[in-house]
Amino acid sequence: MKVLLVEDEEQLAGLAQRELEREYGHQVIVASGLRHAEKHLDEQTFDVVAVDILYDPLVTEFDRRRLSQTLRPTDEKLLASGLSVITATLDVEQTPGIVVWTSGDPSRRLHLIFAYEDLGVRAFCSKRSGSGSLEPLHQAIEAAGVQRRYADSILGVYLPGRGSFALSTTLLREQSHRMFWRALALGYHTAEEIADVTPYAKKTVRSAMGKMLDDLRTVDPGVGDTKKPQPELVRYASSNRYFFLDDAVRKLYP
Amino acid sequence: MAEVPRLVLDEELARSTTRKLVGTLESVALVVQAGGIVLTATVDRLTTNGQLFFYILALVHLLAAFGAHKTSGPFARGGPWLALWLGAVVLMPLVMAHLVGAQEYGASPACVQLCAYPSPLLMLLAFYPWWSLRRAHLRPLLEAGILAVVVLEPLLLVLYLHESPGWANYSSVGATALINMSTFIVGKAVGKMCAVAAEAQVMLQNESYQTLFDWLHREVKDRLVLMRQSIDRPDDLREYVDQLEDIVMRGRVRMLLAPERVSLAELFSEQMRTFGKHLSLRAPNIGALTVRRAVAILLDQALADLLTNAVQHGAGPVEVDFEVNDDSIAQLDIIDNGSGFPSSVLDNGTTSLYRLRRTARDLGGDLSHLGRTEGGAHLRLTVPLHPNS
After folding, report:
1. DSSP-assigned letter for residue B79
2. For residue B70, which residues of chain A lie inside 8 Å, CB to CB?
3. Which of B284, B280, B254 is nearest to B269 (CA)?
4. How far off is chain A from B240, nearest CA to CA, in Å?
5. Per residue in A132-153, pLDDT tens?
6. What is the pLDDT of residues B230-282, one digit of tens each?
7. Same domain, yes or no, for A172 and A246?
8. Which of A33, A90, B87, B168 could form a disulfide with B109 if both were Cys (CB 3.0 to 4.6 A apart)?
9. Apex CA B97: angle with CA B94 and CA B103, to 5°?
10. ipTM for the whole complex
11. Contact B386 A130 (CB under 8 A)
């Protein structure tokens, strides 16, 4: 199969490219990030696109800008990720199969759920399979090529469980709530600060906090009920800031 | 190589944090000042115009307090805005002396009129981040300068306004100085308490970091030395790579269990990675669920113990199932096709399963052994997600 592998870690990408070509007979083109991937997708056709979720150089640059406290939730560009590569892939006329190939860790967990629920990705493969072999990635590529489901046990646990509620009907359901989540994720924690950087009044921000906590508890029943929702929302937004500020999520849910 | 992320606690962050702390108290300080002004307007001998002036001034302070609460006051804004506070404190004794008349100013031995007006300012200034942290050595000079102005200004006014000041005048000035200096010292003490609390937190964090760092450093370094020595022996090398991977995994889990809330998918993922090498596992979908630390530690221990058990008993395919019942009870099932074991194992105080059940019960849950007609073992662990459920 002809595979576009989008991975910023050069050594890992090179190793994966060599093994996938040598051991499994795939033809692999490597792109180091979103722009390269878009260029390749414009110029060539692929059977499968394998995508990492977060790219270190972009995350580092984003964190630097975030700590300078100059970012606003309404800024056009905040953080590009593998989700942007996936949306670019979905725009291709003959849409290739898509594999999410990433390490599972808490900063990526909402990305994985979003990729599954909103972008329709069904093939998930962990970078750190434990065996060191690329057999799982090969299997994921084969599955994605024929639109078959594949999720190894390491990344599979991140996917939504039975009876869970979709992000689109909870955390992302209301435009104002999305804006507040983004402001919280950028470090604007009080109603005053949030009102300053969003088009909403302080009163609206304050009255939304309780509903946002309800939505959060629907997605994550592990979050306790509390009379003061703000600290819980701040904690959640901070630990998932790369998701709330993701450009692809913001494009689909402005 | 990926860039190593920096831990940033820079000057600007420290300043903005302190400003936030002080900024929240600013409106309270303005209300206190307004109260003092109203008291003066009511008690002190003032002309009608003087009284009116002070009532208006009190109103201005209340409006400023409202503004500071709704947006941000001069302290929170920082920089040149501080001149508003300092200017008001310097001007107030002059205005007061003018409005009460030359002989009345500082006539009461208790203290001069509106003597506590600078107190809120001094309290806040005591731990306000003056200038940059790089010029911290100038701070005592600035503080001494402001204190000197606050203490000496009433004295100079008394000396200027009274031809021959008596003990009542000096007592008035002395009491004013005492009140304001005491407030400054209280402010310093509050600042010190905040600093001690922050230092204790940082120390605790440093110790945890150091423990983890030493552990990783020792373990990882040992394995790297062994790997280098066995570079020509592929079987040994592979063994050491496996060991290193396990060490890193344990380190990750340790760090993962540090925060108050833990992503359960991450915990399961790590255990799946470890035991996936030895067992054929069917893992559940966990999604976005997070749990409090105590529950996470229990579930991590349960997965490790129960899957280790399955490996030791040659259990073959193992099904791991997880669900949350009624949004409040976490339920973990581990089902295998191994040789099975009697339920009495859970009552044997020397076994890991007994200890696991005891911990589960301490948290309001339980560990039970469910019978399987087709052989093997089915263990179910339940635990409430929230302490009061």
Report:
1. G
2. 192, 202
3. B284
4. 13
5. 688 999 999 999 999 999 998 8
6. 989 988 998 888 888 888 888 888 888 888 889 999 889 888 888 877 777 77
7. yes
8. B168
9. 150
10. 0.86
11. no
